[in-house]
Amino acid sequence: MVQSSVLGFPRIGAFRELKKTTEAYWSGKVGKDELFKVGKEIRENNWKLQKAAGVDVIASNDFSYYDQVLDLSLLFNAIPERYTKYELDPIDTLFAMGRGLQRKATDSEKAVDVTALEMVKWFDSNYHYVRPTFSHSTEFKLNGQKPVDEYLEAKKLGIETRPVVVGPVSYLFLGKADKDSLDLEPISLLEKILPVYAELLAKLSAAGATSVQIDEPILVLDLPEKVQAAFKTAYEYLANAKNIPKLVVASYFGDVRPNLASIKGLPVHCFHFDFVRAPEQFDEVVAALTPEQVLSVGIIDGRNIWKADFSEAVAFVEKAIAALGKERVIVATSSSLLHTPVDLTNEKKLDSEIKNWFSFATQKLDEVVVVAKAVSGEDVKEALSVNAAAIKSRKESAITNDAAVQKKVESIDEKLSSRAAAFPERLAAQKEKFNLPLFPTTTIGSFPQTKDIRINRNKFTKGEITAEQYDTFIKSEIEKVVRFQEEIGLDVLVHGEPERNDMVQYFGEQLKGFAFTTNGWVQSYGSRYVRPPVVVGDVSRPHAMSVKESVYAQSITKKAMKGMLTGPITVLRWSFPRNDVSQKVQALQLGLALRDEVNDLEAAGVEVIQVDEPAIREGLPLRSGQERSDYLKYAAESFRIATSGVKNTTQIHSHFCYSDLDPNHIKALDADVVSIEFSKKDDPNYIQEFSNYPNHIGLGLFDIHSPRIPSKEEFIARIGEILKVYPADKFWVNPDCGLKTRGWEEVRASLTNMVEAAKTYREKYAQN
Ligand code: MET
Ligand SMILES: [Zn+2]
After folding, report:
1. Where does L-homocysteine bind (predicted)?
2. pLDDT digits (tens, 9 = 90+) for 50-94
């Protein structure tokens, strides 16, 4: 019998139970007992669910109250001194590292004030992990035994599990040196950390675990030589350690071939690779296995919500069996199912035709099991034929196929993606038209999404107020925002985006080709979950999406008003994309749909238009090479398709955030003005890189994630710093990102100081 295996299951609960309890714990409404009780319930439910589905290899230690990488930092005692000094309970230390902690002193507790560790994207997913942060004083040791406890917890239920931990090479490589130890190279800590891994593995073995899944996802990245060499050191050490379980080294989200030489022949029992993402690596990885090694074939997609095509999956696994024999093959999910929503059966509003194409984490359990049974020769005819019908229905559906859109994509040519004139000529035309001062001030789009706004939106969705009433409300919000901006003297205004629930969902809901879930939550970080829309078919724009609000906003002011749209790559990246059509084609379709919107805005008199692309960096393929350059090309092309149909006098803006942006990646977008998140970037070399950027840039001047209000003097100092390397005549003044999560008080104070600082520089430069 070929075994089935699941690399990890979502830990948020089917109805976001973990979020509710964790946030209640943070606000002091429930205690640790309640938090731990809910955590335990979720873990037990997940194991029982998998057991009932017939999964053979079930993961434990895939649960986390915040982040699995952060759990390891706590477990291995990689805790910077600024957190240990408060002597908090382990769970509170964990949360303090994950999200910072500010607490006044009470009779029983000391005051605490500590910021969070850095949080970064987990490979190319929208999950964020907390970066391990090491210093010369880091002393690894086992600090608790979470993986052992959770293994035993499952065992008590009669469920045998395979504990999972991030492996030593990935754990170190994904970390960084702390401020006080900048010369420290994390990978140099390998020898120090290996004994602690060995100790943990021995404990797991003593508890009864026969095998352990060690994740080494960095195998899909471009790795420095030192890091490549670390695999041999690490796994030979662990294999020689006493009393350790069998090791299953797992990698996912890409192709491991460029690093294959570093893992070939390692003394481990099994390798897991992702054949959904990179089926082309099959022959080479099979050839690299030793005669005893087992291959875990990741064939059920852990990153998307589409039903697997059983006939294809079965054929693929059979190929592996033909090469290795049944005993050496495991059928598995491509990665942990953490990146998929929990259970499709909770979707009550989804169109039944579309619902029949989807598979969430719970459904994927059955998929792994069916494929394993099919290749073992068990009778699963019924399941295979039901699946074949669903796959066929999707392929042939009128929802997925729109001949007119497909034809439009085919006829895209150079002309459709270039502006009428080059930037210098446009700049001259726009100067004359808008007559903006030096250091023009603007914001990124959203203003505070107040409780009042959410209440009214809810009432409207529920039908408690009419469309007309809601419209009047939105107009009054827009007017408030416009008057405010005029009052404090901003130059290019925005309407504030009060009508938008979310910058992707709002457009997705109006475009043809999208579907929405009501409960399809996926963890993004900590207690923040997102509910990505799904691209189900060819995308087009049946009607204008943002024109009404922007036109109204422009009609009540003489100043320039920015129309505000979300760009093709961002809509695509923050949705579940189709897997039957390339992402390039989906991006181009979105570009075409947005082009209609941009042109309509211009025709209606909105002559500054911003198309946001904050996700452009995260979409970048993990490795350099052809795939990356292709991506950058179509990302730019789809943006230009959206924005190049306008007159030279119309000013196109774009915006980027949440990333270390490389200016070279955005040149080809040819936007007239871009604004980027920048307030935490201190490296003068990095600023310098932007001064070579040909068009105009607003380098974000304050952090919108923090309630802190920078003073006018701070703004002046920061602008002065940047002006040392960045030319004044290209300099726009703006915050890092939209202001929707902030309160009005802070927004008023921060923006006022920002505008005053810009005026100071204007006067200074006028005198010169
Ligand atoms: C994550 S980027 C956000 C851009 C959007 N226009 C806003 O201001 O909220
Ligand atoms: Zn932003």
Report:
1. 444-446, 612
2. 999 999 999 999 999 999 999 999 999 999 999 999 999 999 999
Per the structure block, which two tokens stand in for 271? 């390798």
Determine the distance separating the centroid of ligand 2 and the alpha carbon of 415, expressed in angstroms.
Answer: 30
Nearest CA owner, ligand 1 atom 9: 738
* Å from CA of 612 to ligand 1 middle: 7
Segments forming the whole domain that contains residue 616? 403-767
Same domain, 202 and 287: yes
Whole-angstrom Cα Rg for the chain = 27
Span 404-409, mean pLDDT? Answer: 97
Tokens of 483: 């008057």
- The DSSP letter of residue 758 is H
Q: Answer yes or no: do 564 and 670 share one domain.
A: yes
Q: Is residue 74 part of a domain?
A: no
Token pair of 451 as six digits: 């409780």
Cα(39)–Cα(45) distance, rounded to whole angstroms? 10
> Does residue 431 sit in the same domain as residue 391?
no
In ligand 1, the atom with minimum distance to the C-alpha of 738 is 8
Active site residues: 705
pLDDT tens per residue across span 256-281: 999 999 999 999 999 999 999 999 99
Do 640 and 607 meet the contact criterion of CB atoms below 8 Å apart? no
Q: Which residue has the tokens 């429930």?
A: 30
The model's pLDDT over 284-325, given as tens digits with 9 standing for 90+, comes to 999 999 999 999 999 999 999 999 999 999 999 999 999 999
Would the pLDDT of 106 be above 90?
Answer: no
| Whether residue 683 sits in one domain with residue 632 | yes
Q: CATH code at 160?
A: 3.20.20.210
The environment of the single-atom ion ligand 2, i.e. residues with CB closer than 5 A, is 614, 657, 737
With contact defined as beta carbons under 8 Å apart, do 188 and 233 qualify?
no
What is the 728 CA–ligand 1 centroid distance (Å)? 25
Q: Which residue's CA lies nearest to atom 6 of ligand 1?
A: 445
Q: Which ligand is nearest to the CA of 497?
A: 1
Residues 602 and 643 placed together within one structural domain of the fold? yes
Confidence tier at 685 by pLDDT (50, 70, 90): confident
Q: Which residue has the tokens 């002393």?
A: 139
Per the domain annotation, does 77 fall within a domain? no
CA 347 to chain centre: 23
Last residue of a domain, one of 396, 427, 450: 396
- 374, 424: one domain: no
Give the tokens for residue 276. 């959904």
Please report whether residue 98 resides in a domain.
no
Residue nearest to atom 3 of ligand 1 (CA): 738
